[in-house]
Write a structure and sequence with these properties.
The protein is mainly α and about 280 residues long. The protein is about 75% helix and about 5% strand. The model has no long low-confidence stretch (mean pLDDT about 90).
Length: about 280
């Protein structure tokens, strides 16, 4: 338990510091995290071809670079096209006869699974705009190069806190009063009661963050969006549980003592940041 608590504290620090700094530091840190997660994802999908592994690393790295350079998303369609075409081209030019279309489909799915949130998280954090509360604007101004992206900082921290607090609430409520299994064939420990508790926490966290940070979103909209992205985070968690169950493993890796692999730690966050970024044009 002590080992798990120390690891959890380390995860929080390593997650918050780059997010607060923003810019190239955050872009590099988040891209590194998703590349590590991609490496853990490969065996879960039975992708063992070195060529396809390298293709995935390059595409995720490219997503992080373009999101940092152009957070407005102008090159996002190009990234999606590359994700579809580059793995297939790589297989076509391979001298091995062991590749098939299944390799291409699994590699494309694996890259999209982590390339999309890489781009979304970095673009979300790089969103330019000020906030309504001086204390939070001053916090952003104190960070190197983050003053112009105070809104992006607020939005990313909101997504991050919704992910953490809704997961914590779902665990505590489920452990205390959970009786009805949610999807036992995928994750036998998750309950309907826990999911409801997590959604309530997600909506509440969203409103508190939006109002507290001074983000220009109506509180009722923040409540609805918070519940929506909280549900998205649960889907992300369940999706990774399904992949691990199909692969016959308990954790995606053993990188973090007491917590498993990197993918185990960001399974909900990668879904949350993707949906938050996708909803941004409507919210603004």
């Amino acid at each position: 338990m002590r080992e798990r608590s120390v690891s959890a504290l380390g995860i929080v620090i390593l997650g918050l510091v780059p997010a607060l700094v923003g810019g190239v530091i955050f872009a590099f840190a988040f891209t590194a995290v998703t590349i590590i997660a991609f490496r853990e994802l490969l065996p879960l999908l039975h992708i063992r071809q070195r060529r396809l592994e390298v293709v995935g690393y390059l595409l995720i790295g490219l997503a992080g670079f373009l999101a940092w350079l152009y957070p407005d998303g102008r090159y996002f369609p190009l990234l999606v096209a590359c994700c579809m075409l580059v793995p297939l081209t790589s297989i076509l030019h391979s001298r091995s006869d062991t590749h098939d279309t299944g390799d291409w489909a699994r590699c494309t799915g694996a890259v999209l699974y982590l390339m999309l949130p890489t781009f979304a998280a970095i673009a979300l954090r790089g969103t330019e705009g000020s906030v309504g509360h001086q204390w939070f604007q001053s916090l952003a101004d104190a960070m190197p190069g983050s003053g112009a992206t105070a809104e992006g900082l607020g939005l990313f921290l909101t997504a991050l806190l919704i992910t953490w607090l809704s997961d914590t609430a779902a665990y505590l409520v489920g452990k205390s009063v959970g009786r009805t299994k949610l999807i036992p064939r995928v994750s036998p420990n998750k309950t309907v009661e826990g999911a409801i508790g997590g959604l309530i926490a997600a909506g509440t966290t969203s409103v508190v963050c939006v109002v507290g940070f001074g983000i220009d979103i109506h509180p009722l909209t923040a409540l609805i969006v918070g519940i929506l992205i909280g549900a998205t985070g649960m889907i992300g968690d369940l999706s990774e549980s399904m992949l691990k169950r199909r692969a016959g493993v308990k954790d995606s890796g053993n990188l973090i003592p007491g917590h498993g692999g990197m993918l185990d730690r960001i399974d909900a966050l990668i879904f949350v940041v993707t949906v938050t970024w996708a909803l941004l044009p409507a919210l603004r």
